[in-house]
Amino acid sequence: MTDLTLSPALAPAARWRPGPRHYFRCLQGIVWREWLRFLGQRGRFLSALVRPLVWLGIFAAGFRFTLGISIVPPYQTYIPYEVYVVPGLAVMVQLFNGMQSSLSMVYDREMGSMRVLLTSPLPRWYLLASKLLASVAVSILQVYAFLAIALLWEVQAPWYGYIAVLPALFLSGLMLGAFGLLLSSTIRQLENFAGVMNFVIFPMFFASSALYPLWRVKEANLWLWYICEANPFTHAVELVRFALYGSISWIATAVVLGCLAVFMGLAVWGYDPARGLVGRRGGAE
Amino acid sequence: MIAESRRHEGEKGLRLMSSVVEREDKIRGSAAMGGNAGGAEVPAAASALHIADLSHSYGPRPALKDVSLALRPGEFTVLLGLNGAGKSTLFSLVTRLYAHRAGSIRIFGAAIDRDPATALSLMGVVFQQPTLDLDLSIEQNLRYHGALHGMPRRRLEERIAAELERVDLAGRRRDKARRLSGGQRRRVEIARALLHEPRLLLLDEPTVGLDIESRQFLLDHVRSLCREQGLAVLWATHLIDEVGKDAHVIVLHLGRVLAHGTAAEVLAAAGAGSIREAFDKLIRRGEPGR
What we know:
The complex is a heterodimer. By secondary structure, chain A is mainly α.
């Protein structure tokens, strides 16, 4: 082998530093791909809508006669059960979307397409945040479609509620999406995802204020009430519930923001090749 | 933008080079036997890919041990090893899918752990697993990759047209990736890897599962890129017949580099008449306990 001499042709590269335009194009590309995938998977859209509608049309219809709802904030009067349950179902749509997104990341990692994302020269935290934003955009569309169909059940919030709920949905979607990202960094195999459904998603949904007001839970079982209060999903539901009626729950907002920061931080740590779980296990294989 | 910035890299590069060279971190890469020592020295800054004393393990199981190698611009280098030799681990570390804890990896002088943005912007990768999104069209897959590299729209469209032309798939750019054969998908993946005009191309077992014609097309295509564009290529394979007479060869076995040099140098060092014979001899000598 001959000696190499240093010549301009063999010069090392200049440092490449991405500018705002690089970041923007990257975000645009990731969101655009998520939309394309979503539009291409009509079944996903339908199931995202059918799931809460089954709850609203069947479960809520059955429960309205057994579960009276008293006046609880943000409601100003007695409300039928359908009205109570709609914000919880809206956040359920986001919960499932976050899990679907997380599932697709585990799938992408097993199938290899995650590698394409992670070999981008942009910082990994930014790639994950872009992926999260793309997923939240899709979930918000699903929620608005659900709210539109819920009008058929005469569940109608004030008109300004549909605008006020947008930032709330954005925050709750981010928190649940970040939770999904965190899960995807800890799950190595697709098969393990069924366990997540049983041990994470269902307990999260049922031990919350989505289906019943917490004062009733407190009357029935104090420990369950503590669990419901500690459940971030409860606060996401309350954030959306209050926003849909034009008010704000500061506690719910603070809890959702705090959980978002923790989940996102842990997810970025989980995907960091130098420190995280994926790198330690060689899980990106 | 990446391409634009590289037009100015000569001057800046020379400035950066001096600091890198000052570290006197040089690698000895030649047809050495039973280790990584050898004859000529390849300065880190002059290498397209420069790996020194790289070790990695999964828990107690070592996957790579003291791996050192260097690739120069324009070189077609075959990374030859049996399944489980550590090729994919090496690729995962070089592409920073996970981090190395011992040793160093530099791409044109940029350390992958300290300056991943520069290192990754200079690198195109074709992974062993298929990584196209089968529900998207060819051009949608390529646009997504361009976006991940922050490429401007007009430049991206020009590059997509040029690269698809080169792999003879320009007429099928709107076809869903699902409709392509295995060989065509690999061609799209190579076009995608070259979209942002990298200077180093890594291919991990790119011909696995392909028919003879597709394999030959890929080999010829990538070799021509080395000749015509000065691209440095690392081609990982366990198929010995993919080593051409003019190729550089790295033999990797059980996580160790057993030989590194031109095909002729490896043959001479192993005392063999063919690459297959040289490979067999090297593997036997590299077995634990020998």
